[in-house]
């Protein structure tokens, strides 16, 4: 017979639950952006093909590692990490698409996706700060740095 041990890390059950809920949204946004970026990597065409193909690959590879870190933090807080397309679709702020955009529109949509992830991460900070949850704060800071930089680099491709 298995019994769960109470989690006693200095963060209340209610705070751990709220933070895990916010991180679940971050996980959903990150995974959705991963899928979108990987799709664009496969399907980009045009004069910037090689540049975008390689940039998209670097970004989706980084996202693949990030989703694991986010899910593991949710688990460390004592909650299950969402792991289905249905769960991600319900939690994400990044729209799914079924069209085939050109390269410039791909870039615009990825900028929007990167910025959505940043806003989601930023929205969790009040909960994390109040609970003195430094590991989650560190994770959020790292995620925001990556996504703000990616958005800047993508936006730079559109500047005339």
TrEMBL record:
<dbReference type="InterPro" id="IPR009078">
    <property type="entry name" value="Ferritin-like_SF"/>
</dbReference>
<dbReference type="InterPro" id="IPR023188">
    <property type="entry name" value="DPS_DNA-bd_CS"/>
</dbReference>
<dbReference type="InterPro" id="IPR008331">
    <property type="entry name" value="Ferritin_DPS_dom"/>
</dbReference>
<feature type="domain" description="Ferritin/DPS">
    <location>
        <begin position="23"/>
        <end position="159"/>
    </location>
</feature>
<comment type="similarity">
    <text>Belongs to the Dps family.</text>
</comment>
<dbReference type="GO" id="GO:0003677">
    <property type="term" value="F:DNA binding"/>
</dbReference>
<keyword id="KW-0238">DNA-binding</keyword>
<dbReference type="Pfam" id="PF00210">
    <property type="entry name" value="Ferritin"/>
</dbReference>
<dbReference type="InterPro" id="IPR012347">
    <property type="entry name" value="Ferritin-like"/>
</dbReference>
<dbReference type="GO" id="GO:0008199">
    <property type="term" value="F:ferric iron binding"/>
</dbReference>
<protein>
    <submittedName>
        <fullName>Starvation-inducible DNA-binding protein</fullName>
    </submittedName>
</protein>
<dbReference type="GO" id="GO:0016722">
    <property type="term" value="F:oxidoreductase activity, acting on metal ions"/>
</dbReference>
<dbReference type="InterPro" id="IPR002177">
    <property type="entry name" value="DPS_DNA-bd"/>
</dbReference>
């Amino acid at each position: 017979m298995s019994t769960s041990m109470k989690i006693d890390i200095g963060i209340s059950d209610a705070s751990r639950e709220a933070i895990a809920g916010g991180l679940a949204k971050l996980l959903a946004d990150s995974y959705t952006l991963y899928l979108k970026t990987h799709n664009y990597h496969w399907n980009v065409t045009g004069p910037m093909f090689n540049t975008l193909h390689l940039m998209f690959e670097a970004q989706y590879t980084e996202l693949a590692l990030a989703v694991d870190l986010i899910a593991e933090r949710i688990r460390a807080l004592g909650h299950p990490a969402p792991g289905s397309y249905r769960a991600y679709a319900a939690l994400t702020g990044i729209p799914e698409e079924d069209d085939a955009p050109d390269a410039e529109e791909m870039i615009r949509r990825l900028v929007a996706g990167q910025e959505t992830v940043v806003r989601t991460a930023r929205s969790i900070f009040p909960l994390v700060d109040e609970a003195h949850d430094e590991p989650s704060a560190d994770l959020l800071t790292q995620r925001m740095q990556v996504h703000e930089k990616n958005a800047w680099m993508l936006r730079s491709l559109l500047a005339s």
